[in-house]
Amino acid sequence: MLTLVTGTTGQVGRRFVPRLLAQARPGESVRVLVRDAARGEPFAELGAEVVVGDLRDAEVLGKAVAGVDAVVNVAASFRGVPDEEAWAVNRDAAVELGRAAQAAGVRRFVQVSTGLVYGVGRGRPLTEDDETRPGGAMWGAYPESKAQAERELLALDGMDVRVGRLPFVYGEGDPHLAQSLMWAGNWAATQRLQMGHHADVAQGLLRILHAPGIAGRIYNIADDAPVTAVELHQLNGVDVPEGLYDRTDPDPWLAIMSTERIRRELGYRPVYPSVYAARDAGAL
Ligand SMILES: NC(=O)c1ccc[n+]([C@@H]2O[C@H](COP(=O)([O-])OP(=O)(O)OC[C@H]3O[C@@H](n4cnc5c(N)ncnc54)[C@H](OP(=O)(O)O)[C@@H]3O)[C@@H](O)[C@H]2O)c1
């Protein structure tokens, strides 16, 4: 079984691929798609095959999926990019990758998505059966581009497509936790961020990749304890700005996802149930 992984030079992908390789059984191998050959070298050293190119290039997609049994599409463009790029990579290139995979006879396709596809106003944890209604100025085209990619990929005939929706991912030296203050500094004190440690995001994605009989299924992946804006400041060792206490949280359930389905159906249990558990284990 050959598995293609995209987005492997990113924060999630670079921590997912070593775990995928470490758990590989005899006969299982991994191919990675990278844009820069030099950045593929660490993966080659771990035993992965490397294909170089951009996801928006149809010729590259053909090379990347040739002979592949499964795809895990981790790649996305959302960190400060213009909306056109978000649409081009997160929706158009993801769907083209799905079509190329379908044409090449790939059996299984895991699309990595985000809890931001749910949007606001549910009054309870978000479940995979909820209709997606992404929006909000903060993230531009990112949530909608990911939601459309999910829909179009799940509609492809004859390929087993699965979706994993991630929370805010942190840990193992990822600067994301410190970066959270860029937004959390403008939140209400009680506003919460739902987290997932890299070890648990990889665990969730591996379960989604390997489980039999879940074609077309969507799974939320997250830990058990969303943290407030106050705690994010404390965790980063920064004073809590006074303004936080003057604001009201507009939606206490924004991007807070239920993990009931992945627990019940795939046996997922976070290794780090909270950011505090990860901190105390030295895994930040
Ligand atoms: N991190 C989070 O908290 C979080 C939360 C929810 C969902 N997610 C999802 O998780 C996935 C990974 O996120 P991340 O945090 O790892 O993102 P990241 O650090 O920004 O990495 C993005 C990856 O995608 C690759 N990529 C972007 N445009 C590409 C293109 N045109 N062709 C080929 N590769 C391209 C990047 O390659 P280069 O290195 O060459 O730029 C990089 O490897 C995404 O699908 C994202 O939507 C992440």
Structural category: alpha/beta
Distance N to C terminus? 33 Å
User: Whole-number average pLDDT?
Assistant: 96
CATH architecture: 3-Layer(aba) Sandwich
Order of helices and strands: EHEHEHEHEHEEHHEEHEEHHH
Low-pLDDT residue spans: none
Name of the top-level CATH class: Alpha Beta
Radius of gyration over all CA atoms, rounded: 18 Å
What global shape is seen? globular
Count every beta strand, where a strand is a DSSP E run of 2 or more residues. Answer: 11
Task: Kindly identify the CATH topology.
Answer: Rossmann fold
Summed up, the helix count is 11
Roughly what percent helix? 25-40%
By CATH, the superfamily comes out as NAD(P)-binding Rossmann-like Domain
Which distinct ligands sit in these coordinates? NADP nicotinamide-adenine-dinucleotide phosphate
The largest pleated sheet is described as: 7 strands, parallel
Q: List the strand order in the largest sheet.
A: 3-2-1-4-5-6-10
Strand content: 15-25%
